[in-house]
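User: I'm putting together a small comparison set for a docking exercise, and I want a reference complex before I start. The sequence is below, and the ligand is phosphoenolpyruvate. Could you produce the 3D structure with the ligand included, as structure tokens?
Assistant: Of course. I'll restate your input first, then give the structure tokens for the complex.
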Amino acid sequence: MRKNIVAGNWKMNKNLQEGIALAKELNEVLTADKPNCDVIICTPFIHLASVTPIVDKNIIGVGAENCADKVSGAYTGEVSAEMVASTGAQYVILGHSERRAYYHETVEILTEKVKLALANNLKPIFCIGEVLEEREANKQNEVVEAQLASVFSLSAEDFGKVILAYEPVWAIGTGKTATPEQAEEIHAHIRSLVAAKYGQEVAENTSILYGGSCKPSNAKELFAKPDVDGGLIGGAALKAADFKGIIDAFK
Ligand code: PEP
């Protein structure tokens, strides 16, 4: 059966010392009161090598927020999937709407990134979601279907390692959350697309996270929906108490 997961996306926040302090605090809090779901923190690249040894691997997984679409070589400023994996990280967020919008990451680029992540034993947390105009035009289903092409080129075995995150762009960092009904409707649609591509068993085993202004006050209602298997959390992942409040939605 699929896993319930709460994953944090720190984005470009926290200097190294602050990041280490947050990881230590989270580790303490979650060691004292064990979560009922998988917990992952995705940090800026420079934090990874410091954060992976200080968290209990059995309680907190660590991931990057991106990786390069090339194996290695003359790509100044890029960080490869192999480099990420060498820090001990086990996950990587790919396809976040900020990367798609500000860094022009296309379906083709993301297809390469997903392949390289998997080739280096990193599990992709693959983000999909529509912008406000697409939602207003009722195009969200076709938008996510087109975005899924980056992971639908994988074998069923490789797809089984992918975590999906539905993040409506209009809800990210805006304080405006999708209603549990809106989330359930599109999560169920996404699962039906996975079933059509890989079969019912793979679809039932795929974790689909919701992201977009998820907070301790709304997490329980969202995660109670049958096709919402947890959350990808931005702002509320930057404080241990808030992140723990969301994790506790599974208690
Ligand atoms: C995100 O960017 O992945 C996200 C969900 O952000 P926030 O929780 O701040 O809306």
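Residues 9, 167, 172-173, 211-214, 232-236 surround phosphoenolpyruvate (CB under 6 Å). The CA atoms of residues 156 and 198 lie 6 Å apart.
User: Thanks, that's exactly what I needed.
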